[in-house]
Design goal:
Strand order of the largest sheet: 5-12-9-10-7-6-13
Structural class: alpha+beta
Radius of gyration: 19 Å
Low-confidence stretches: none
Largest sheet: 7 strands, mixed, barrel
Shape: elongated
Order of helices and strands: EEHEEHEHHEEEEEEEEH
Distance between the termini: 39 Å
Mean pLDDT: 91
Length: 237
């Protein structure tokens, strides 16, 4: 048994495995290594494994398996991994062009005001370091990344938008995200990338996975067409 993982029932067809006794980085690494291990096992009846920051949800068909069976497999894989597992695959780095401000980033001035920075300083902090993808969120596997090193958290919008364009670059709290498809959204928008985030013809539809990093690179509006339609998968390196 791995003493850094606790396993609890979650309703009649799921389990939660949570990392305990570790710092945030080690907990995240352990949870995602366990998710990769469970995906590799392909346990009959399990139809989804969803890792987040310090826990994962294992969903299964209760007509084909049960809590005890799934719990034994999860405990076995956690014990095999130990407290400090190596990543299953090497992380990749994606370089993402972004037009900041204006029509593409309408909330940039207000975010700058809230942070006590200039718009240029906000852009410099957002694009100044690699941001790690921590988990995939809604909708459609949106890459939830570490936030840039702003001096304080960024509040969400008081009134969420009913429509956010795909490729929009948003921040909230201590997190950042690229919106992969049209959707409502309450996170402030700093800019937008012209590259295509999703590829619905591919499996999986996202080129990135937790552990990969994004480096955002400012471009001018005149450079938009130079990148428009390019797949994000072509932007790694």
């Amino acid at each position: 048994m791995n003493g850094n993982i606790t396993i609890t029932d979650c309703g009649d067809s799921a389990l939660t495995a949570r990392a305990v006794g570790l710092d945030a980085e080690d907990a995240w690494r352990l949870v995602h290594a366990l998710a990769d291990a469970l995906d590799a096992v392909r346990l009959t009846g399990v139809h989804d494994v969803v890792p987040t920051y310090d826990a994962l949800l294992v969903e299964f068909d209760s007509t084909g398996t049960d809590h005890d069976t799934v719990r034994r497999i999860v405990a076995h894989e956690a014990a095999r991994l130990g407290p400090d597992p190596a990543p299953a695959t090497p992380p990749r780095r994606f370089v993402v062009p972004v037009v900041y401000g204006g029509e593409h980033g309408p909330d940039l001035p207000e975010v700058a005001r809230q942070l006590g920075l200039t718009e240029g300083e906000v852009v410099a902090l957002h694009s100044g370091s690699d941001l790690t993808v921590r988990c995939l969120g809604a909708p459609a596997g949106a890459p939830m990344t570490d936030g840039p090193p702003f001096p304080k958290p960024v509040p969400r919008l008081a009134s969420p938008r009913t429509h956010v364009d795909p490729g929009s670059i948003a921040v909230a709290g201590r997190q950042a995200v690229i919106c992969p498809m049209p959707s409502p959204g309450g996170w402030p928008l700093l800019g937008r990338t012209p590259v295509r985030v999703l590829d619905l013809r591919s499996d999986p539809i996202t080129a990135y996975r937790p552990g990969d990093t994004f480096r955002f690179v400012p471009i001018t509006p005149d450079e938009w067409d130079d990148h428009a339609g390019t797949s994000l998968a072509a932007c790694h390196g």
